[in-house]
Amino acid sequence: MKVAGFDIGGANTDLAIIDFEDGEIKEIKTDFEYLPMWCENDRLGVTLVDLIEKICPIDEIDAVGISMTAELVDAFETKTEGVRDIAATCEKLFDVPVGYIGLSGVLSLEELINNPIDVAAANWKATSQIVAEIEKDCIFVDTGSTTTDIIPIKNGEECAKGRTDFERSATGELVYTGTLRTNLTSFVDSIPINGKEYAVASELFASTADVYNVLGLIKDEDFVCATCDGAGKSKEDSARRISRVVCADLDILSMDNIIEMCHHIHNMQVKQIAKGLKQVSERENLDKVVVTGLGKDILCAEAAKLLNLDVKSMGDYYTDEECVVAPAIGTALMMKNSIL
Amino acid sequence: MKVAGFDIGGANTDLAIIDFEDGEIKEIKTDFEYLPMWCENDRLGVTLVDLIEKICPIDEIDAVGISMTAELVDAFETKTEGVRDIAATCEKLFDVPVGYIGLSGVLSLEELINNPIDVAAANWKATSQIVAEIEKDCIFVDTGSTTTDIIPIKNGEECAKGRTDFERSATGELVYTGTLRTNLTSFVDSIPINGKEYAVASELFASTADVYNVLGLIKDEDFVCATCDGAGKSKEDSARRISRVVCADLDILSMDNIIEMCHHIHNMQVKQIAKGLKQVSERENLDKVVVTGLGKDILCAEAAKLLNLDVKSMGDYYTDEECVVAPAIGTALMMKNSIL
Lengths: 340, 340
Known about the structure:
- The structure is a homodimer.
- By secondary structure, chain A is an alpha/beta fold.
- Chain A is about 40% helix and about 20% strand.
- The first copy, chain A, has a six-stranded mixed sheet, sandwiched between helices. In chain A, strands 7, 8, 9, 10, 13 and 14 form a six-stranded mixed sheet that branches.
- Chain A is globular and about 60 Å long.
- Chain A starts with a strand and ends with a helix.
- At the A-B interface, helix 7, strand 10, strand 12 and helix 9 of A face helix 7, strand 10, strand 12 and helix 9 of B.
């Protein structure tokens, strides 16, 4: 049987299709698409179908699981409205069973309508299912394009103290920083260049994708978000965007200056994640970390090392492509277990 | 004679028309328009003409002075390109003398083409002309919609140590924070609510205009920037946007919670400006401050008080409307002096 798991984020929609044989995973296929839900949520239905059909005919799919975080985008007045709107779109698309990942398990549409907040931003619940099979007592750190989930697992069960994005913003379990879309000015106040500290300009001139593009830490095909100025994705385009963050341009700053800036920005983002990880690690008395997501090596593992924690990578058990869509894989797994 | 002074910013274009009689100011009329130059710079020419004609027929104008900061927007690859492009637009519009405010004085088009960087972000030079008449030895602090200029004046002459936006980002003389357009996450890392600290979400969910709207510190007609979600400008609309900054919504947070958040955010922005002001004040050994701009009372004066500096307000010499467009008034004054 084939189960599709979707993780519908604010900026990216991820898909994993798992082919099960005798209850065991035979094959996993993954894909994702940049879909800015704050302005293009009317394209969600088409995107979900297209993503499946790029992998296999839609009538081969036996069940569909849905995780979401996109209900937070400002196209929706409240999370409740967002969850219901997204679910309404999904329901129209499939003739097979559809389930929604909530903190209390896999919900039917009726259950979702009665308790929409259970489904809001619960995709980390799905990821925790996979991580628990790798390590029964650990913290998993999953840095995606936009956010970082830092979730404690004990005896194979997630035990996050915060149960909503809002609560997790206070417990260290959600650090709203990512590998691609994060505005540099959200975690950097000033940047040293040639021994002087330059305060940053509060605009959206450049994002973290530009920094890791210049440093060669992400592949071209991973740079899936829009650019801040609508220009290209070459290293020079990224450098030009980064120069504006200190009110400069490439007449003023050399490529060496930009690289110096990027190393500092990278360090600051590692520290930002380490701060949340420290809070969770000390509170829960856990010192093993499993890293995943697009930022698993360049951000999560570095943050864990900074705190002298033991690091395992989901990359030792899954391919890089699978790690990037870990919540979608977890979603497909939970959906399959719920219909058996 | 009537002289028009324009201050062409990245987000707002300000106009002051000064009517001189026997060399003295007889009357000042002002206006401004929200013009996001990063996406609508092709509307600049029309906007300049419309702004004048709302005040008087264009053929009554005897000279036009231009200041700019819009060359930094990411529609332009470099500042040089931005300055030349904006000047080219201005030249086509007027049959009377046009001059460009640079750090070295009022430049002709030919001088601008040879030395565009002199004209980039030099509008504070124009403001310093007015302030020097109020106080010969002081620091002026001008918080507009987007940025804050902190400029030392000695013996009636500005003596800013940084000569470009880039340099001023290191000297404390430019703090890129403002009353309307500033992303809250650029100067706030976490916000206390009911005794817990909530880390902020790095998106552009809300701006400072929302905070001062909720607190009743700006008038409705001053809320001239676009809203982050494209929704309205009621206090509830602003509160909803602010709730998203901690991944919440108005189902989760009450208006009292939002007001508590706003007071904290306001304090943090005052401290941000105070940091730059302290740097300039200690270095230049100046303890008098003249405040102006839309944020003169709610931000600049508060920052000066925090540092126990003496505060004078340009509002004691000019109307509030005039203070908001202080660089445009200074531009008209410099232009008039240059043609005599």
